[in-house]
Amino acid sequence: MKREKSCGALVYRLLDDNKTQLLLLKHRYGGHWSFPKGHVERGENEVQTALREIKEETGLTVDLQNGFRECVSYSPKPNVKKQVVYFLGYAEDDEVHKQEEEVSEIRWVDIEEAPSLVTFKNDKNLISKATRFLYEGHGADTETAPSEKEA
């Protein structure tokens, strides 16, 4: 069995009204909505890969949040096992520049709406985990947290 590894992040920003938004990408190949990610290159660690891929695909510089690291495994094709490591990153700016070769569309969406837009169940679960992480005192103001039903 062939093994592949990618790293990326759920990238978020906070608006003036204390709303949290996630950055979603529509991938040119496959047409699915998800998060910035890509293959680990020789000599890179997981964090370096995630930061490079975010910069390449979106033009953004992000600050990865300590304590959030989630792994997703799946089989994209027969005899291939893929592991993707996701971090949670705060966008230091919000002016995106999409990578035309791989990304057909980029969109900031309210964190409560994001689960209905992403394509895969694994991504919906990641959004739920990121929402809990952010609103349990690690990032945003806990009083503005969406309920579990909304997330």
Radius of gyration: 15 Å
CATH class: Alpha Beta
How many helix segments?
3
**Head-to-tail CA distance between termini:** 36 Å
Number of structurally distinct domains:
1
Q: H/E order of the elements?
A: EEEEHEEEHH
Largest sheet: 7 strands, mixed
Unreliable stretches covering 5 or more consecutive residues: 139-151
Mean pLDDT: 88
Query: What is the second-level CATH architecture?
Result: Alpha-Beta Complex
Number of strands: 7
Structural class given helices, strands, pairing? Answer: alpha+beta
Shape: globular
CATH superfamily descriptor: Nucleoside Triphosphate Pyrophosphohydrolase
Gist of the model:
The protein has 151 residues and is of the alpha+beta class.
Structure description:
This protein has 151 residues and is α+β, with helices and mostly antiparallel strands. The protein has a single domain (2-144), classed as Alpha-Beta Complex (Nucleoside Triphosphate Pyrophosphohydrolase), CATH 3.90.79.10. It has 3 helices and 7 strands. Strands 1, 2, 3, 4, 5, 6 and 7 form a 7-stranded mixed beta sheet that branches. The chain is globular, with a radius of gyration of 15 Å. The chain starts with a strand and ends in a 13-residue tail after the last helix. Mean pLDDT is 88; it is low at 139-151. InterPro entries: Nudix_hydrolase (IPR020476), NUDIX_hydrolase-like_dom_sf (IPR015797), NUDIX_hydrolase_CS (IPR020084), NUDIX_hydrolase_dom (IPR000086), Nudix_hydrolase_domain (IPR051325), Tetra_PHTase (IPR003565). One of its GO terms (molecular function) is bis(5'-nucleosyl)-tetraphosphatase (asymmetrical) activity. Belongs to the Nudix hydrolase family. Residues 2-131 form the Nudix hydrolase domain.
